[in-house]
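I am writing to request your help with a piece of structural work I have in hand. What I wish to show you is a protein chain and, alongside it, a tokenised description of its three-dimensional fold. Could you please explain, in whatever detail you think fit, how the structure tokens follow from the sequence? You will find the record immediately after this paragraph.
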Amino acid sequence: MLRVLTLSTLFPSAVSPRFGTFVEQQTRGLAQLPGTQVEVVAGVGLPVWPLGLHHHYARRAKLPLVEERNGLKVHRPRFRVCPWFGDPLAARFLSAALLPYLKNIRKHFPFDVIDAEFFWPDGVAAMRLSRALQVPFLIKARGSDIHYWTRRAGVKDQILEAGGSASKLLTISTAMKNDLVALGMPAGKISTHYTGVDLERFQPIDRGLAKKNLGVSGPLLATVGALIPLKGQALVLEALSHLPDVTLLLAGEGPDRNKLGVMVQQLGLADRVRILGDLPTEQVAQLLAAADVMVLPSRSEGLANVWVEALASGTPIVISDVGGAREVVQDDRVGRIVPREPAAIAGAIMSLLRDPVDPQIPRAIASRFSWKKNAMELRDHLLSTSLGASGHD
């Protein structure tokens, strides 16, 4: 029996149902394997009074401390955060809050290994907890936890220390593995562990009918992601101004929503753009299957789940040359990798609209990414981490 303590500050909840759904999906797959038990610790960061009264935090404070969610036992202990100036302290605050909590968990669930789902703050906190509890730990690098946080003062050294201390490191793409090595982490302990995709939920459907259900006629673009500068929705809007009679639906929420709304008006695109906000997974699947092209010119990524979800839906993608892009788009029939420039994005979209691909071609690429394969590989990595720490082969 392998007992896994999954540590992830990015995990869905009633407050944020789309927050880290890929972590939940991966963990559910792991927990369903024979001989494997999993419990999740998803810490809830809350600031001191009166900042905690802000609605952003007040809703989190009402989450249950323990709940059963989609077959998983999820613990949500609180830890302190210091908005605006406390970034370098986040892992210390998290580990300090979790240590007594995990000691209590071990009384009924003597976990063999800690699975940290992000480098920051989860991975650094896992390092501290591992030392205190004498339990081995593994860290998975996903994207911004490396590309963003290693540029933050006081954080990079902690990430490098955790990378050197972990029994094993996983990355979501070979490109991300190369990034870790470039930072100075030991290549010998790094393995690529690709994401999965729900091939039953994300699949080709009647595109014309799907568009009709969305109130769209003519060519349709979809962009799915948080509304933040990193994702590049503004570039998509500029590209759209060069694509007459094409509709764009943006799914996601974030601080750029108002800015993007103003931009839509300024570019005269109000009749061709809708910002849908956060959507349930089922509606995201419908949107991706309805779209002729999914566009996401991100400034950085590891290997975005929505790339693979779009391909599973039979929809080609236009993305920037970041992270594992070239590990996914290996054929012009499934998409284009373009510079982050509106003209280049528009040109790639137009080429795919002029010469539509058979939906089964992108679908075949996506079939390489299954949650079952993802779960089985993760169990192997966790088991070797646990046995290695015990002195076994």
